[in-house]
Amino acid sequence: MIKKAILPLLLLATGAALVVQVGAKDQFDDKKFRDLLMERAENNSGMIQLDEDIIKELLRRAGMPSGEVENFGARQLLEFFSEGGQGLDLMPGLMQLSETDLDALEKQYFDLVDAHKPSTKNAAKSTVAFYTGDQLLVMGTIVSKDGHILTKASDFKKVSGKVMCDPGDGKRVPARIIDTFNKHDLALVKINRQNLTPVRFYTGELPAIGAFLTASGPVNEEPLGIGVLSVHPRSLNSADRAFLGIGLEAADDGIRVTRLLPDTAAERAGIRQGDIITQLDGKKYGSVPEFINAVSKREPGDEVEVNTLRNDMENSYHIKLGRRPDIDRRHPEGRFERMNSMGTRLSDRRDGYPQALQHDIPIEPEMVGGPVVDLNGHVLGINIARAGRVKTYAIPSKTLMAVLNEAKLSDAQVSAKSTQPDVERERLIQKLDQAKQQAEQAAKAANKAQLEVQRVQKLLDAHKE
To answer: Sheet holding 276-280: strands in order across?
Structure first.
């Protein structure tokens, strides 16, 4: 397993997305570069996503000559931010890396990708790709043996020409929509193909926040991306979403309030920028995603108790949660939207879902529609939108099963019902695996003991002679 401290650098080294936590302004030495980074982090809980092109753009804007910037590859960029390079003072906290470290990181990344292949093996058999001409349009997830597929409706419907589906064998067939579920942005598509492999949706307990997830490509291709679970399923309808009205970053004693939106529940209650939130309803939270996830489980109008520290003084606030303002739709060309999409292509529709889980796998908009799985291969849902630099939404499996029941397709319904987790069966399978491992270890120990017996017997026989 790759240590968390080196994972951000590892991802940059291989050209993938880089997520770093931006520290306080006084930690940066170069003002221009610092301001650019802080601008990117604003409105996103102190987190920014960088890739090679974006870093080059920021370096150029910070005054580095374009010719010098263009000569930077992934390895040069890493060296710039390590081993005493110029960038070390600009982004504190990055590890100092030697040439050996860089080679090890590259190897570890590909080892990480290989390690995720078993997770997506089964889901890949249920993943298809839709094309318009030679252009990938969107992906889809097989839900019945006779050719019913769920996909992102708004992307599928945006083309007027023929849409073709590659079910995994390279032989494309026409695809047509037979039903839509607009509130989820889902379409049920039919292709003329039999004996497909339906997905097995998992509706058991979800992994903890921060658990690794991956997105499957069609057939046996490598995972489309690797990321972590950011927020458990919750409503993305503004009217349904509880809202405090604060920006946050991790702090030693809790979670620091970095930004306070005017006329919101937090401001009206008396919370101020710089306060350290120590507890929410009597529970401590050590990370921003965990705190956000806890708030998201509440509803507008719910009352919560928030404990804070300000100048070493403890304060307690009873706050009635408000409703989340629809920032993107009110200000589609505003600063929030520009920052959210900087360096990233976003899905046209990316909000308003009744239920969605959030992760940070950096897939392109045309790669949504396929399954997202955990390390055990459980299909937790279908990716539905790339919504930000570090934000991808997926419709959870429980919601998808309800959609299939609504569709009233017998074949699809059977597939959905058969995926209900059998807890006892899974427990027995796990117990059987453990017993097999114990038996294998016992056999090895017995074989080793027998060899030792034979060795000692030979020594004994030789001694008698």
So the answer is: 246-251, 254-260, 276-280, 303-310, 313-320
Q: How far apart are the C-alpha atoms of 208 and 374, rounded to whole Å?
A: 11
172-180 own/partner pairs: CB under 8 Å, 24+ apart: 172/131, 175/130, 175/149, 177/153, 178/148, 179/407, 180/153
pTM over 0.70: no
Assigned token pair, 270: 């008396």
φ and ψ at residue 243, rounded to 5 degrees: -145, 125
Could you tell me how far CA 98 lies from the centroid of its own chain?
29
Largest CA distance in the chain: 98
- What angle (nearest 5°) sits at the alpha carbon of residue 64, between those of residues 61 and 65? 105
Look at residue 279 and give its three-state secondary structure: strand
Q: Give the phi and the psi of residue 413 in degrees, each rounded to 5.
A: -65, -45
CA distances to 212, 242, 285, 399 from 207, in Å: 9, 23, 17, 17
pLDDT digits (tens, 9 = 90+) for 265-282: 999 999 999 999 999 999
Which SS3 state, helix, strand or coil, does residue 84 take? coil
Q: What does the alpha-carbon distance between residue 203 and residue 184 come to, in Å, rounded to a whole number?
A: 18
With 60 as the cut, is the pLDDT of residue 117 above it?
yes
In 3D, which of 186, 386, 358 has the Cα closest to residue 288? 358
Compute φ and ψ for 16, nearest 5 degrees: -85, -175
Positive/negative CA dihedral, 222, 227, 233, 239: negative
CB atoms within 10 A of CB 81: 22
Q: Encode pLDDT of 199-246 as tens digits.
A: 999 999 999 888 889 999 887 667 888 889 988 998 888 777 788 888
Provide the pLDDT for residue 317.
93
Listed residue (278, 272, 287, 285) closest to 306, CA to CA: 278
Residue type, 440: E
Residue 361 has pLDDT above 80, yes or no: yes
